[in-house]
Amino acid sequence: MDPALFRSSLSVWPSFLLVSAPVLFDYASQRVPRCSHSPWIASQENTMKDTDIKRLLYTHLLCIFSIILSIFIPSFFLENFSILETHLTWLCICSVFVTAVNLLLYLVVKPNASSKRSSLSYKVTRFLKCCIYFLMSCFFFHVIFVLYGAPLIELVLETFLFAVILSTFTTVPCLCLLGPNIKAWLRVFSRNGVTSIWENSLQITTISSFIGTWLGAFPIPLDWERPWQMAIERKYKMCRSLYVCTRHGASHCPQVWPISCTLGATFGYVAGLVISPLWIYWNRKQLTYKNH
Amino acid sequence: MRLGSGTFAACCVVIEVLGVALFLRGFFPTPVRSSARTEHQAEPPAPEPSAGASSNWTKLPPPLFRKVVIMLIDGLRDDFVFGSKGVKFMPYTTYLVEKGASHSFVAEAKLPTVTMPRIKALMTGSLPGFIDVVRNLNSPALLEDNVITQAKAAGKRIIFYGDETWVKLFPRHFVEYDGTTSFFVSDYTEVDDNVTRHLDKVLKRGDWDVLILHYLGLDHIGHVSGPSSPLIGHKLREMDSILMKIHTSLLSEERETLVPNLLVLCGDHGMSETGGHGASSVEELNTALILISSAFERKPGDIRRPKHVQQTDLAATLAIGLGLPIPGNSVGSLLFPTVEGRPVREQLRFLHLNAVQLSKLLQENVPSYTKEPGFEQFKMSERLHGNWIRLYLEENNSEVLFNLGAKVRRQYLDALRTLSLSLSRQVAQYDIYSMLVGTVMVLEVLALLLLSIPQALSSEAELEVPLWSPVFSLLFYLMFLVLSALHVIVCTSTESSCYFCGLSWLTAGGVMALISALLCAVGSALAKMFADGKFLSKNPAHPKARWSELDVLILLGTTGHVLSLGASSFIEEEHQTWYFLINTLCLALCHEIYRNCFLRDDCEPQQCSHVEEGFVSPAPALQDRSIRCNMLEPHRVSKGPTSLDTLRGYEKWMVLASPWVILTCCRLLRSLNQTGVQWAHRPDLGHWLTSSDHKAELSVLAALSLILIFALVQRRCSLTSKVAMALGLLGVYCYRAAIGNVLFPWQRDSKDISKGVIEARFVHVFVLGILFTGTKDLLKSQVIAADFTIKTVGLWEIYSGLVLLAALLFRPHNLPVLVFSLFIQTIMTKFIWKPLRHDAAEITIMHYWFGQAFFYFQGNSNSIATVDVSAGFVGLDTYMEVPAMFLTAFATFAGPVLWASHLVSFLSSETSGSALGHACFCYALICSFPVSAYIILVTSLRYHLFIWSVFSPKLLYEGMHILITAAICAFFTAMDQTNTKS
């Protein structure tokens, strides 16, 4: 879809509001279903929404596509690449891909379109601020994982990369959409605070990533012989769980710690990406946003 | 009848305890045991019976075999040897079975078909029950009378190679052993090579009498790829060659010594069609048992079909073969073919010994043993036997003697069979009927609790219990009649023993009446709810309350925890679940606090703007929403102004920081004790502290913890109890120093270690003193009814008395757990519950969660082995059962108990009115939910492979937990009563 069209439609939006305000007030006070009263306005608004939702859907499909690419592309360049066995590499690649796609989409689509000033220094400081925020969120997540029981001293790299991928799924879209503006974040993540479809979908994807991560911790205590849990390399068929590995001094056993959680986060993110356009489409009649 | 919700909940929990007790009684049948222990060596073997003439044969008969080799193949199903697979893959064994000097049997194992209990059954001849594990707590060694112990006592030299379980069961019994762990299920070559590699060397040596080999490979193959896998064939062929090797070696040795040896090939349990075991399918129960010895000669053409026998018969047979007394608890009967080749007098002597042992066991376990048919048969055959001996001693070698001998033998065999059958009927069966009755009681109570939630949590905290109407209703009588009829039918028709049927008719009738009354109550509650529901649906004005994130989390967490109990790994690692949940709870609280702090300022104007801008906004729906928002907000808004906004700067920061402080505390505690199974071996602070190198650090930590405990507890006590507390904590340190756990700074050398009885009693006195003061204050507050603070102080004193007791019983490295518990309670009270004004239900559930987490922070787990039995001996000279049990239970469940008593004191000091009743109801509900679910889960999983190792210990913990919950609820109710009266 053409971004210019989108921008022009956005610029139409306030004038449209001004025109329709008295009419709407009339409806609001009378509490009559809107559609039956004035089909024209309703259809106008619906098309607005529909184009927005379509746009949202395309961007989300792109994000999902980037994740799928991050699984398949590296295997052309790297030997022995697989998600489970070279998990940390995949984490880095996936995080880079998702960040790149998010930035690209931000630059192309500009959903908030609120850049009032565009001086270079402002942009640079903004970018630097975003980087700092991203790093801070990585450390914040790392601390939370340690509080949840991740090992403090060992496996720091694994835990940190896990924090990075979770930040990629949650913080990066927030930074792209809302900028380094804590107040806006808090507003979006409180009840009834969203002001556009984009923020709504942001809310949904972020929360579903968190939930996915949270649920991803559940398989950790299980001691089945499952690859997502153990990343068993076939040659070490004797390693049944970490317990055995350490008890028998077999240091060659593969490390499993963040796998289930990162997979959970990824699934959560993807699920959020799929669900949010559908959910918004489903509830498009009920959803209304306060415009700023 | 109107009841307060607290009282109602307490009654419900008490009934639930009864139900759980009945269930446990059915689930863990008491095993048949002889009262004599292993040490009864002095008891002489039963002499040969003789009528009139005196027999001079009073000693045990000599051993029949010189050497015995037991080759136990894990999971050796009968058709692996006797079926087509055996013919194909085990040619040598098949040859022995069909033509060689051997006797083959199909030995039937009893439940549970798992290795450890089956080894016990093979060696003791008894049917082990899970309750044994509990009885000899902490000791994996087999204390019962068994063949191995007897053989060792008789000076036999025993060598063992194979599964480690044996080494644990019989420590210091083997002159030489090599245990292999059965942990790697996917390894099926190494485990067996570990056993076989010793074989050549050992067979050449002559310095042993008994050799036991336990091969695990076959079972592992079964677990990995099932009984029809081609790997099974390879394994069987390997086993066959090993058997041939052993047999030829034994035969060549016999040629030199001319005394027969015995080779036993047996399986411990079978293998189901999917390859697992543990349940009761025919494939799992039937195992192969082959006795091979040159003593079992047979003429060509003598076809011996494998007979069906019991697995327990092996113990008696082995004992006789080795010339040992038969183990006292054995319920098996001698495998008669093994002694067939002996002279008649010896045969009869063996049969007599076995029958005497069985009848003794019967006498000790069945009160009306004289009426048992087996016992009568035994007495008759003993008389006949005496006659036979007299004839024999008169050297009457006629046909009469032979015929009489044959008759006596037949009599004895009949008697043995009957005796053995009636003894093994006593155990080894789940008593389904008792379990069912218990489950029904528990479920009905749970349904009642669930149905009365809306009433019980209403503002007046009272509910109408339809107690009298069901008694007079027709349904009640109908149910009662039907249930009683059912009871009679079940009890008269079952063959196995049943505990519930053994109760007196009056008790059983009472239970039936209770069940039907509960059913009627549930029915009427349901009917009432439907009526109310109709009424409500006609009333659309009724606002539907929306749940906060915290409520959703609490609900999801509880459900998730209950569901997780279905998986054995989650039970083993239950502490992870609770740590995870309380962490999430803290984060949710954090979210709530931050929202309240930061968004309150924006939210209010925003909300107003919502309403104002309603006309501008393109959606009328918004108005609806803002109205709803307003409707929801009041309870928050009305709370709002007094809570976070009034706090001063410093306190506001504390509120903001408190969840993080709590999270950090929990993280520290988590690294104090590693529990569970998978990560239990990880190094933790607890082990570091208890190692003898770090005694000084431990002393400092303990002293610091005790000081902190005092600092945290004293602020709300009266002066006397403050002093008592200080002295008591000092006494705790003295006690720990006296038993040598910690050091005094002035004494560098470790002096002689005493039991510390005086110091511990000193502390006990203070504990009782503080509890007494607290009770006195409570009573005073009830009498005077004016001073509210007296009651608060009294409750806090009771709480601090319990803290002191816990400080005494906890091991010194666990004292930080107590400190952190007090610390977290203080922070939560001051900065979370008070400012955020959670309601009683939420606070109760948070207390429950933290209590559960602290149960595991203490180092407990869901296995029996982590119970700290030493707590039962604090302050006691000798073992006294009741105080020891009380102290151990308190020390184990200190976390939940302390959090619950904190809940009582917090609620009665901070809130008024119905809060205590609500809290009691919630506590009862949230405790009974997992228990009821777990009972059903365990019933459905009773044939699971891990039923003994994982599920049964957890069941015992749950039973104990519900008992303690009942006590806590009673305490709640008592407090609630005083509250309403005052």
Q: What does the model show?
A:
The complex is a heterodimer of chains A (292) and B (982). Chain A is mainly α. Chain A has twelve helices and no strands. In chain A, helix 3 (39-72) runs antiparallel to helix 12 (259-282) and helix 9 (197-216) packs antiparallel against helix 12 (259-282). Chain B is mainly alpha-helical and 982 residues long. Chain B is 63% helix and 5% strand. Chain B contains 39 helices and ten strands. In chain B, the strands form two sheets. Chain B has an eight-stranded mixed β-sheet with strand order 5-4-6-2-7-8-3-9, with helices on both faces. A two-stranded antiparallel sheet of chain B has the order 1-10. In chain B, strand 4 (158-163), helix 8 (164-169) and strand 5 (176-180) form a beta-alpha-beta unit. Chain B is elongated, with a radius of gyration of 34 Å. The chains are: A mainly alpha (292), B mainly alpha (982). Chains A and B meet through helix 1, helix 6, helix 8 and helix 11 of A and helix 25, helix 26, helix 27 and helix 28 of B.
Key traits:
heterodimer, A: 292 residues, mainly alpha, 12 helices, globular, disordered N terminus, B: 982 residues, eight-stranded mixed sheet, 39 helices, elongated
Shape type of chain B: elongated
Strand coverage percent of chain A: under 5%
CA gyration radius of chain B, whole angstroms: 34 Å
> N- to C-terminal separation of chain B?
22 Å
Number of helices of chain A: 12
Main sheet record of chain A: none
Structural category of chain A is mainly alpha
Q: Proportion of β residues of chain B?
A: 5-15%
Structural class based on helices, strands and sheet pairing of chain B: mainly alpha
Q: Which segments of chain A are poorly predicted (pLDDT under 50) over 5 or more consecutive residues?
A: 1-39, 226-253
Largest interface: chains, residues each: A-B, 42 and 49 residues
What is the share of helical residues of chain B? Answer: 55-70%
β-strand number of chain A: 0
| H-E string of chain A | HHHHHHHHHHHH
